[in-house]
Amino acid sequence: MSFRTAPLAVIHDRDKETLLTPELRSEIDRHVAKYPPEWKQSAVMPALTLVQDYNGGWLTRDLMDQVAAYLDMPEVAVYEVATFYAMYDLEPVGRHKICVCNSISCMLGGAEALLEHIEKRHGVAPGETSKDGKFTLKEFECLGACRHAPVVMVDKEYHECVTQDGIDKIISKLD
Asked: How far is CA 7 from CA 10, 38, 40, 127, in A?
C-alpha cells in the first residue's frame, strides 16, 4: 500500500480557455507534460515563474488564482508556494531584480558588506525598489554557488565573487 496519493482535483468555475494567454498556457502545458496526468500540480513552480515573468516580475492574486484553476489545485496551495519561495514577488518590482545570497558561505565571503554598500551607495535596502524604478534589492536564502561567494543574481544571471566595486559596475550597466 502506498502512502503517496495524487492530489485531489479542485472544481473551479472558470473556463480554462480564457485563463492566461494562449502562449502562457502552451508553455505551462510543456511543464505539465513532464508529470503523470494526476500530478499536473507539480508544475506549479514553473507556471508561477512564467506568469510572473509575463507580468513584469510579480504575481497578483488574480494571476495566482488563474494558475490554481489551470492546474486544478486549491488557490491556497498556490499562495503557499508563492509566499514560501523567495523567487516570487507579490508586489511590483523594479525593472531588474538584484538578489544577494545570504547563506553562511556568502555572508562569510562579504555579502553582508555588499548589502550595506548597496544601501548606502544606492539608497536601497533589501526588499525595496530604487527611487528610479531601476532595480529591486532582495536577500536570497541560497543561490547555490557557495564556492564562489559572495554570489549575486541579477535578473537570471549569476555573478560570483562580487566585490563592492563589482556590484557598482553591475548596477551602472542596468537600464
From this structure: 9, 7, 9, 34
Q: One-letter amino acid identity for 109? A: G
Q: With H, G, I as helix, E, B as strand and everything else as coil, classify residue 174.
A: coil
pLDDT (tens digit, 9 = 90+) per residue, 113-162?
999 999 999 999 999 999 999 999 999 988 889 999 999 999 989 999 99
CA distance 51 to 33: 18
What is the Cα–Cα distance from 78 to 66, expressed in whole angstroms? 10
61-70 contacts at long range (C-beta below 8 A, 24 or more positions apart): 63/20, 66/14, 66/19, 66/20, 67/20, 67/28, 68/10, 68/12, 69/12, 69/14, 69/16, 69/19, 70/16, 70/19, 70/20, 70/25, 70/28
Angle value at C-alpha 27, between 154 and 61, nearest 5 degrees? 70
Could you tell me which of 61, 116, 124 has the C-alpha nearest to residue 96? Answer: 124
| Grid cell 489551470 in the structure block, residue | 70
Q: What is the pTM of this model?
A: 0.81
SS3 153: strand
3-class DSSP assignment, residue 139: strand
C-alpha–C-alpha distance, residues 37 and 40, integer Å:
5
